[in-house]
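Worked example 4.2. Below are the chains of a multi-component assembly; read each line carefully before continuing.
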Amino acid sequence: MKTLLNTEQLNKAIRKIVEQIKSDIPSNTDIAVIGIRSRGEILAQRLKNALGSHFSGRLLSGTLDITLYRDDLNEPKETQPTVRSTEIDFDITDKLILLVDDVLHTGRSVRAAMDALTDFGRPRLMRLAVLVDRGCHEYPICADYVGMKTEVDRSQSVFVHFAETDTEDGVTIE
Amino acid sequence: MRKNRKFQWSRKHLIGLSDLSRKEIEFILDTAQGFEKFSRRSIKKAPTLRGKVVVNMFFEDSTRTRNSFTLAASRLSADVIEFSKKASAVSKGETLIDTARNLEAMGVDIVVIRHGAGGAPKLLSRSINACVVNAGDGFHEHPTQALLDVYTIRRQRGSLDGLKIGIVGDIAHSRVARSDIYAMTKLGAKVTLIGPPTLLPGGVENLPVRVSYNLDEVIEDLDVINMLRIQFERMGGNPFPSVREYSHYFGLTADRMKRAKPDITVMHPGPINRGLEIESEVADGPNSVILKQVANGLAVRMAVLFLVNQAATQQGKDK
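Applying the procedure described above to all two chains together yields the following structure tokens:
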């Protein structure tokens, strides 16, 4: 196990994402921050808290479970996918959706998330924020706002830990 | 390392609840929760079972259960074949297993079956490779109804642990009651069966329940009351002198409700005989969750279809 980001570096990476968003998205935008379960949900909540003062209107947030949209449901796998609820209690149509995930890897989760979201309505714009872009993309998907970009070997996994559900903030490679 | 030892669902058939563990029942309910808000979305469809074929084999009449399974399968993008006894070769003498094998040869992945004979789904599950989901067999079990019942109670009450639940009426002819007893007691509730002796099943002393012949004696203790329909179509003789007498002693009337706890949850698996086992005022009243049961049934059936298909996918690996 190797530490990629310690607590301080992780929070710096989040601040970096916040600054990118602030300089890119006008403050009068109708925006909703939607995190992909489960670590994306926590990152989304932290981004929402940090962005509250920037956006003049109401800053909405939600959580997306992408299990039903995964492209590997018909393949046997080590860990069975678990369905959890999607919490989007507003109409996403015509809003700017800031989609949030912890790690961008193959791009398949983001593909699933985009399909899932379009079943909820038709957003005006969709943007992607990730804490770590670790490379090895398999689909043509890039993030708009990135906390840290690095190349991690295909054989290794990147784990994001948040104090809310894990012991402390940090990113590790195993 | 992150803990990845999550519960794994491993059953490709859902035949009954008698051999399911508490953990398994809770896992189905948790999965159903993920589907509950589905009906409020803009597009009520997900691609989860795309390319899969579900056949609804109903050898007995049903509106609620059948439509609920059809809708659940459609919302997961499966193709659904509706099979009914009257319009099939069964009326030409084909056996259940031959019918199912023929359907399977067309590439059916999940068979949802309702049959008048208890044990028919079990028999089918041994004879074909497709997943089998029991939608009610004889007087045996009706697992998805019981699952939606306990799901509804859990949503209303948070948990079933320690709850006092009364099941009233025609228990002898009720597969719902049997599945309910397994599900409710496994989740920690205390179940009392209430009805005239003629409508209580033989062997009731072997079930983990209390029995009462007098609704008025027990109603004030109950947190939940589940009113069953009198299944005249399954009866030979007359189990009670008259419908009015039954209604007088065992019907849930507005008057009787006054003696119940103010927050008692009133349930009914449908179809309702208004004025017989339940008065309209109660069925449509503030304590009634009858329509919530129907709505939750959809979420529970989506969860069951999803899970059996996942188990089949997992097991495909071992072949």
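Take a moment to check your reading of the output against the notes. DSSP finds eleven helices and nine strands in chain B. Chain B touches chain A at residues 1-2, 4, 6, 8-9, 30-31, 33-37, 41-43, 45-48, 51, 76, 303, 306, 310, 313-314, 316-317 (CB under 8 Å).
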